[in-house]
Write a structure and sequence with these properties.
- By secondary structure, this protein is an alpha+beta fold.
- The strands form three sheets. Strands 1-2-3-4-5-8-9 form a seven-stranded mixed β-sheet.
- A hairpin with an 8-residue loop joins β11 and β12.
- The protein is globular.
- Bound molecules: zinc ion.
Length: about 300
């Protein structure tokens, strides 16, 4: 069980399971002789990917970041990915019931990030898996998901989000919003155009002087508390922390590089804890620059 205290907040990782992913697609243009030093591929060239959701207890709200792959893949997709569908069991084993979740945040709307947003209800209609929760997802993602390119249309399953948008249970985000005090989203384009990372400042109480700043329009100042970031598919595993090691799935690989630079410019000096969606072994780590300028992941 991965759990830690981040300031006033408690963070824990719950997994929807693991699934096989083509190693070449996972590492894009990086040669296999290089990536195979970090991840072992099987005879079909598959590596094992994880599906890590992050549960945040702020003391006031219980927030779930990302909902895994879910249980409604087509048989064609299930042939490739299986359908681990373990998130609800993992949460239950940790004493978390669907009714306990107040807020669900999706970084983007690919099937492996919002799969448990909904389940098929008794009348065959799709309903919220977390009945009391307010859901949030990037508006640009949702717009794009209505008319995706041929390249990635298979990644969007409208039942994961459209029923929630229609019922008003899902709020669409522009980017930069603070969802509850201490938890905000930030757009990092690259994997998709509108993917949002979730930044967690471990307190609901901004700096004592921040009320003055807020009054004159400045964002709240949480610089005194430790920070974590659910970075999603900008760097899906600890093996992807090098600036140039992007995924073949990235729609805008050059923007992935720019976004990583931007992220590191803040996250490295401020020592943010980075949370990795698809790392089956190391769901979170501190990313540092070593003496040679190479990015290294230091486990917790
Ligand atoms: Zn993903």
């Amino acid at each position: 069980m991965h759990r830690l205290q981040l300031g006033d907040f408690e963070l824990s990782v719950y997994s929807d399971g693991t699934y096989p992913l083509d190693g070449g697609a996972f590492f894009g243009v990086v040669p296999k002789v290089m990536w195979s030093r970090k991840l072992v591929a099987d005879e079909k060239n598959y590596v094992t990917a994880g599906l890590n959701s992050l549960l945040i207890r702020t003391g006031k709200q219980t927030v779930l970041v990302e909902t895994g792959m879910g249980n409604k893949l087509s048989s064609r997709m299930a042939k490739f990915y299986g359908q681990p569908a373990q998130l609800l069991d993992s949460l239950a084993a940790g004493g978390v019931a669907p009714e306990d979740i107040d807020i669900v945040i999706n970084s983007h709307l690919h099937f492996d990030h919002c799969g448990w947003n909904t389940v098929r209800g008794q009348n065959g209609k799709f309903v919220a898996t977390f009945p009391r929760a307010k859901y949030y997802a990037p508006e640009g993602e949702w717009q794009y998901a209505r008319h995706p390119s041929e390249r990635d249309s298979i990644s969007y399953i409208s039942e994961n989000y459209d029923p929630l948008v229609e019922s008003g249970q899902m709020t669409l985000l522009k980017g930069g919003e603070e969802i509850v005090p201490g938890i905000s989203v930030r757009t990092f384009p690259g994997h998709t155009a509108h993917m949002q990372a979730i930044v967690i400042r471990g307190s609901q109480n901004p700096h004592p002087l921040a009320e003055d700043a807020r009054r004159v329009g400045h964002p709240p100042d949480f610089s005194h508390v430790p920070t974590a970031c659910y970075i999603s598919d900008l760097m899906p595993t600890t093996a992807h922390i090098d600036i140039t090691w992007g995924m073949g799935f990235d729609l805008y690989p050059l923007q992935t590089i720019e976004s990583k630079k931007q992220y590191y410019a803040e996250a490295v000096p401020e020592r943010w804890l980075t949370v990795f969606t698809h790392d089956p072994k190391t769901p979170w780590a501190y990313v540092e620059k070593d003496e040679l300028g190479k990015m290294v992941a230091k486990g917790v």
